[in-house]
Amino acid sequence: MNNEKMGNFIFEMRRSQNLTQKELAAKLEITDKAISKWERGISCPDISLLIPLAQILGVTTSELLNGEKCAAPEKSKDVLVEETLLYSDRSAAQKADRMKGILFTFFSSSVILAAVICFICDFCIAGQLTWSLLVAASLLFGWLLLLPLFKARKNIVRKLLLMLTLTVIPYLAVLSRLLALPAVCKMGAVIAVISLLGLWCIYIPFLKIPHRKLYVTGIILLVIIPVMWGINGTVSFFIQQPLEPSTKFVDSLTTLVLLIIAVFCFGKEFLRNRKQ
After folding, report:
1. What's the confidence (pLDDT) of residue 92?
2. What is the pLDDT of residue 75?
3. Is residue 4 predicted with pLDDT exceeding 60?
4. I need a labelling partner for 91 at 20 to 30 A (CA). Which of 20, 130, 193, 229 fits?
5. Distance between CA 35 and CA 38 in Å, rounded?
6. CB neighbours of 35 closer than 8 A, spacing ≥ 6?
7. Given this model, what pLDDT does residue 60 score?
8. Cα 203 to Cα 135: distance, rounded to the nearest angstrom
């Protein structure tokens, strides 16, 4: 099924019925702009309008879906049902895309408006741009981070992680420059790298073996252990203070609990596979 082909067919059948776009829209109780979008192949009719539209144009729903007159006998019910379901899926996907586009426009406008307001307030109070630059940098980081959520059609989680990987270090560098605190970038970069490695190590098993939930859970628990120790060790190194005994005790206890649960998950998964 092709939007342009269907649009041309609707246009031809409408003209053959001596109907204007406004007259056809009035019969369907919709706007003439919707008719115009159908005929230009920008969108397609909602599934609830297929039967009344076909009746008005003097064609069958099958012909409407195919975008051409059928010289051969009508298709079987199974084929018609399949075509209708495919059309419904495509129509729902187009609606979802339009809604995501509206939300993205609203989100982007809100980010720009918030940044402008901060710039104005900062300049009026301090006579120059100070703290508003931090806000603007954070807003831009958030906008870039959520961009795949609005624009990606598949592999959204992977693209979110990829965007986070590409933007977090530059964002920390900008914060470090604006705050005049080099340690923010250095310590933050190390923590970010450790955290990102952990997130990718968690995501990959979900991607490769999503059906083995207990096995994946065990891997996640094992990944958390080095990430936890790595972050705590990084903070201790940069503030030049050793970990407190209480912190070491809590981390050690947490590690032991995570190991026990991970072993349990692996064991249960092994026994389940053995039974099968």
Report:
1. 74
2. 52
3. yes
4. 20
5. 5
6. 10, 14, 21, 24, 25
7. 82
8. 30
The first and second tokens of residue 100, run together, are 């995501």
Number of H helices, E strands in the chain: 11, 0
Q: Residue 87: what residue type? A: Y
The sign of the torsion formed by the CA atoms of 94, 203, 165, 250 equals positive
Contact 209, 215 (CB under 8 A): yes
157, 203 Cβ separation under 8 angstroms: yes
* Encoded amino acid at 234, one letter: T
Residue 229 CB neighbours (<10 A): 17
Between residues 106 and 82, the one the model is more confident about: 106
Dist. CA 114–CA 138, nearest whole Å:
11
* Angstrom distance (rounded) from CA 181 to CA 175: 8
Residues 266, 215 contacting (CB under 8 angstroms): yes
Residue 42, pLDDT > 90, answer: no
Percent of the residues in the chain that have a pLDDT greater than 70, as a whole number: 92
Query: Which pair of structure tokens corresponds to residue 151?
Result: 């624009």
Whole-number mean pLDDT of the chain? 86
Q: In whole angstroms, what is the distance from residue 93 CA to residue 154 CA?
A: 12
Question: Per mean pLDDT, which range of 82-96, 114-128, 163-177, 242-256 is the poorest?
Answer: 82-96
**Cβ burial 91-119 (10 Å sphere, 16+ → b, else e):** beeeeeeeeeeeebeebeeebeeebeebe
Residue with token string 């269907």: 6
- Phi-psi region for residue 223, left (φ > 0), alpha (ψ -120 to 50) or beta? alpha
Comparing CA positions, the residue from 90, 87, 103, 78 lying closest to residue 54 is 87
pLDDT tops 90 at residue 116: yes
